[in-house]
Amino acid sequence: MHSDQKYWNPVLETLSQKKLKALQLKKFKRIFQWAYDRSKFHRKLYNQAGITPQDIQSFDDVRQVPIVDKSMMRDVQRKDPFPYGDNLCVSLEAVCEFRQTSGTTGQPIYQADTWQDWEWWAECWSYTLWAQGYRPHDRVFIPFGYNVFVAFWAGHYAAEKIGCEVVPGGVLDTQARILKMRELRATALMGTPTYILVMADTAKSKMNIDPSGLGILKITCAGEPGASIPGTKNRLESAWGAKVFDHAGATEIGAWSYECSAQPGGMHVNDAFFLVEIEDIDTGEIIETPERRGKMIITALDRYAQPCIRFDSKDIIEWDSKECACSRTFRLIKGGVLGRTDDITKVKGVLLSPIAIEQVVRGIEGLGDEFEVVVDKVGDIDRITLKIELLPGMEKRRSAIDQMLKDQLRLQTNLGYRLEYHEIGTLPRYNVKAKRFKDLREHS
Amino acid sequence: MEFDNNLNEISAKIQLLKKTAVELKKLGENFPALEKNIARILASLKMLELNISDIVDLSPDG
Predict the structure, then answer these.
(1) Are A335 and A419 in a shared domain?
(2) Are residues A358 and A318 in the same domain?
(3) Contact assessment for residue A143 and residue A191, using Cβ atoms and an 8 Å cutoff
(4) What 3-state DSSP class applies to A282?
(5) pTM score, whole prediction
(6) Does residue B62 register a pLDDT over 50?
(7) Same domain? A192 vs A319
(8) Is residue B50 within 8 angstroms of chain A, CB to CB?
(9) Could you say which of B7, B50, B61 has the minimum Cβ distance to residue A302?
(10) Which of A32, A210, A333, A432 is spaced 20 to 30 A from A183 at the CA atom?
(11) In chain B, where are the structural domains located?
(12) Which residues of A touch B62 (CB under 8 A)?
């Protein structure tokens, strides 16, 4: 068993960037031709832009290819071939997996996959898990409600592919899941950062179990950016006594990036399977230089049933200037996914990203894991209320915590906040994706 | 990299497997247990192509 091999693919993960670029261009031409030949949606889009497959010869040509966004995908679905519409590139008979997006930002998108696409999903996740140290001796517990959302389905299949023993923690409640993990001595776990924190809190407060004593060695988080936010990552690692790794993927895209065991403060983009471009939000210029934020335009280079070609993911990312200690040549994005263009909102004329608030709250000792941000208006003036929970026994430190919060929030977000303390356990708890940011201004 | 010299040979063997699988698939018409299992084998072979064969014919300097 090659458990000492540190790369899932020792060739691709160490290929020079020059060769990776050549591979990306070759694959882009292939998927573009495929979609052009088989999907009315894509052919119409590209014909309207005056682009045919023969026109794609360089990355400059790639950048002329129209960007697809979610609204365009919503427009075509629920039509024939039902329910995917005419961006489907295979017959309905070839489709064997249905998934849909969570619908957080509107009508869910339906996603079709063939068995080959599903193998590809598991392959992408295999890069992730192997890089995070998953090996055949691991017993992986997956506390996820297996359903129409892709979430940890592919993580399950990839863990099996790697040779791990997988324990599906499907319909069990949180306490039953914790007991099952203890009973079976699970060594690894997958979940959203929000839910992994809820599990730790449940174990401690309701079961008198210290999660750090359960023997979990590594946790893969996805679905939210928390595992790349230092304050949240520290809380997760400290609660579980485990290494916590970030991973990013999406239903319409695939599993496109992962943090490796070197924990470089960001994630590797799987450059062999995806073409990631960063576009300046204001000018549309493609950003090649490190440490300049923009939105991600992504192509899944090997996904065939419902191709994802130059998709506007709305994720905000930036390239990292440093190389990773793991020696992978796959590029790093600094700090993981830094936010979403549709999450960033203007308050008092200042751009506010909820992730910045999470980093501050989770970085302060004495505060609980949960928080809520409410933006409303008093007269014509925006007001931000930050609701937090003070941990029991911290009452004497409240004024110091108060000051620290205000200072850090001002420093990180350039905004002032009204702080509202709540009893521990009284703010909403979330089992999947949290909704901690509420903008009530249109209702004020 | 230790595998670089073997890539052509590995890729050739993947293509051989694929050729055999495609031939088997043709023989499997009206034989679901053969046809459907071959379809899964072909999907796995595609993963081998993505992991290995796709880089074999990249030009050495880029």
Answers:
(1) no
(2) no
(3) yes
(4) coil
(5) 0.90
(6) no
(7) yes
(8) yes
(9) B50
(10) A432
(11) 4-54
(12) 18-19, 21-22
- For testing contact with chain A, the best of B6, B9, B47, B53 (most A CBs within 10 A): B47
Query: pLDDT digit string (tens) for A387-443?
Result: 999 999 998 999 999 999 999 999 888 889 999 999 998 998 887 677 888 888 875
CATH of the domain at A170: 3.40.50.12780
Asked if B42 and A11 come within 8 Å (Cβ–Cβ), the reply is no
Domain span holding position A220: 1-341
Provide the domain count of chain A: 2
Strands A350-352 and A345-347: antiparallel
Query: In this structure, are A142 and A171 located in the same domain?
Result: yes
Query: Among all chains, which residue has been given the structure tokens 């939105």?
Result: A295
> B59 contacts in A (CB within 8 Å)?
22
Nearest residue, CB atoms, B62 vs list A22, A115, A302? A22
Q: How many Å lie between the alpha carbon of A96 and the closest alpha carbon of chain B?
A: 12
Give the CATH number for residue A423.
3.30.300.30
Angle between helix A230-240 and A193-207 (nearest 10): 40
Helix axes A115-131, A153-162, angle to 10 degrees: 70
- Residue-wise pLDDT tens digits, A106-130: 788 999 999 999 999 999 999 999 9
pLDDT digits (tens, 9 = 90+) for A236-284: 999 999 999 999 999 999 999 999 999 999 999 999 999 999 999 889 9
- Is A100 found in the same domain as A9? yes
Taking the Cβ of residue B16 and every Cβ of chain A, the question of whether any pair is shorter than 8 Å is answered with no
A116 interaction partners in chain B (CB closer than 8 Å): 42-43, 46
Q: Are residues A267 and A351 in the same domain?
A: no
Same domain, A306 and A330: yes
pLDDT (tens digit per residue) in A342-400:
777 888 888 888 888 888 999 999 999 899 999 998 888 889 999 999 999 998 999 99
Q: Which residues of B touch A29 (CB under 8 A)?
A: none
- Cβ neighbours of A28 in B, within 8 Å: none
Neighbouring residues of A129: CB distance < 8 A, sequence distance ≥ 6: A155, A158, A159, A162, A164, A220
Residues 12-31 of A with CB under 8 A from B: 12, 14-15, 18-19, 21-23, 26-27
State percent of chain A over pLDDT 90.
Answer: 80
Q: Can you tell me the distance from the alpha carbon of B29 to that of A112, in angstroms, rounded to the nearest whole number?
A: 25
Instruction: Look at residues A315, A341, A367 and tell me which one is the last residue of a structural domain.
Output: A341
Instruction: Please provide the average confidence, as pLDDT, over all residues in chain A.
Output: 93
Coil vs helix vs strand at A245: strand
